[in-house]
C-alpha cells in the first residue's frame, strides 16, 4: 500500500521509542509503505540501526522527549525533514518500573510517568497545529496489562491505562479538527523492554511464563504484528475509526 497524502506526497510519520522493539518495527512498516519516518529515541546507536533499514526514508532523531524542549525539538525536526508536515504521530516510547507501593519515592515515580504519560500529552500538544493542517492521526501504544493487576509494575500499567482514557477523550475533542486518535494495547511481545529495566534472568523468565499462562493463543507476539495494527489504524482506509483501543495480545484481555 502506498503511503501518500491526497496531494500525492509521502506522509510524514513520527514514531517515539523507535530504537528497538515495537517502535523500530513501526518505523520500518511505515517506511515500507513509502512514508517519511522521524524515528525518535534517547540513544543514537539503536536509532541508527533502525534507520539502516531505509536511510532515505527514516530520519533518526536522538532526543529525550521528557526534556523541557523535547516535544518542540521533535516537531521542529519533523517539519524540517518531513516536507513541512506531520501526518501521523505514534506515541510508543515507554519505560517499566521495578518498584512497589512500599518502595516508591518521590524521585522514583517521576521517570515512568514522565515518559509513559506526560511526554505523549506534551508531544501531541506540540504537534497539534501540524496534525490539524494535515487532518492527521495519533496512535498511542498502551498495554493490555492496564486492565489487569501487575504487582511490582503498577506505575507502568497506570500510565498506560491513563493514556487509553486520553485516547478516547482526544478522539472526541479533536474530531472537529479532522484528527483521528486511536490506540493499540499490546500484550506479551518479544521486545527488550524488560532487559532495559535491569530484571535478572530469573525474573524475566518468570514474567514470560506468567504472560504465556494468561495468553490464550499460547505464544509471544512479535513487534511486527503490533506495527501492522498501528499502520492499519493510521491508514486512510481507517478514516471512520477513532477512539478505539485495539488489543494485540493473543486474547489476554478477554481470557
Topology:
Elements: E1 12-16, H1 21-32, E2 36-41, H2 44-51, E3 58-62, H3 70-81, E4 88-91, H4 106-134, E5 137-141, H5 154-174, E6 180-186, H6 193-196, H7 201-213, H8 223-234, E7 245-248
Q: What is the count of DSSP helices, taking H or I runs of 4+ residues?
A: 8
Strand content: 5-15%
Radius of gyration: 17 Å
**Average residue pLDDT:** 92
What is the global morphology?
A: globular
* Helical/strand content category: alpha/beta
Q: Largest sheet, order of strands side by side?
A: 3-2-1-4-5-6-7
SSE succession: EHEHEHEHEHEHHHE
What distance separates the N and C termini? 34 Å
Contiguous runs where pLDDT drops below 50 for at least 5 residues? none
Number of strands: 7
Helix percent reads 40-55%
- Biggest sheet, in brief? 7 strands, parallel
Please describe what this structure looks like:
This protein has 255 residues and is α/β, with parallel strands linked by helices. The protein is 44% helix and 14% strand. The protein is built from eight helices and seven strands; from the N terminus they run βαβαβαβαβαβαααβ. A seven-stranded parallel beta sheet has the order 3-2-1-4-5-6-7, sandwiched between helices. α1 (21-32) crosses α8. The mean pLDDT is 92.
Amino acid at each position: 500500500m502506498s503511503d501518500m497524502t491526497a496531494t500525492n506526497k509521502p506522509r510524514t510519520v513520527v514514531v517515539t521509542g523507535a530504537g528497538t522493539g515495537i517502535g523500530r518495527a513501526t518505523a520500518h512498516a511505515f517506511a515500507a509503505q513509502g512514508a517519511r519516518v522521524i524515528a525518535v529515541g534517547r540513544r543514537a546507536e539503536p536509532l541508527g540501526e533502525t534507520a539502516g533499514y531505509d536511510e532515505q526514508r527514516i530520519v533518526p532523531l536522538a532526543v529525550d522527549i521528557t526534556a523541557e524542549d523535547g516535544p518542540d525539538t521533535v516537531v521542529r525536526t519533523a517539519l524540517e525533514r518531513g516536507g513541512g508536515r506531520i501526518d501521523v504521530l505514534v506515541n510508543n516510547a515507554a519505560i517499566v518500573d521495578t518498584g512497589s507501593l512500599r518502595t516508591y519515592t518521590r524521585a522514583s515515580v517521576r521517570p515512568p510517568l514522565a515518559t509513559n504519560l506526560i511526554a505523549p500529552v506534551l508531544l501531541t500538544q506540540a504537534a497539534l497545529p501540524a496534525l490539524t493542517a494535515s487532518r492527521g492521526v495519533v496512535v498511542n501504544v498502551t498495554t493490555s496489562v492496564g486492565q489487569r493487576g501487575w504487582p511490582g509494575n503498577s506505575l507502568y500499567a497506570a500510565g498506560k491505562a491513563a493514556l487509553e482514557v486520553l485516547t478516547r477523550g482526544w478522539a472526541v475533542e479533536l474530531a472537529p479538527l479532522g484528527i483521528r486518535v486511536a490506540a493499540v494495547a499490546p500484550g506479551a511481545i518479544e521486545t527488550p523492554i524488560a532487559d532495559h529495566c535491569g530484571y535478572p534472568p530469573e525474573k524475566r523468565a518468570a514474567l514470560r511464563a506468567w504472560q504465556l499462562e494468561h495468553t490464550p493463543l499460547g505464544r509471544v507476539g512479535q513487534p511486527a504484528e503490533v506495527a501492522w495494527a498501528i499502520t492499519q489504524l493510521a491508514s486512510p482506509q481507517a478514516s471512520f475509526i477513532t477512539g478505539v483501543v485495539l488489543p494485540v495480545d493473543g486474547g489476554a484481555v478477554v481470557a
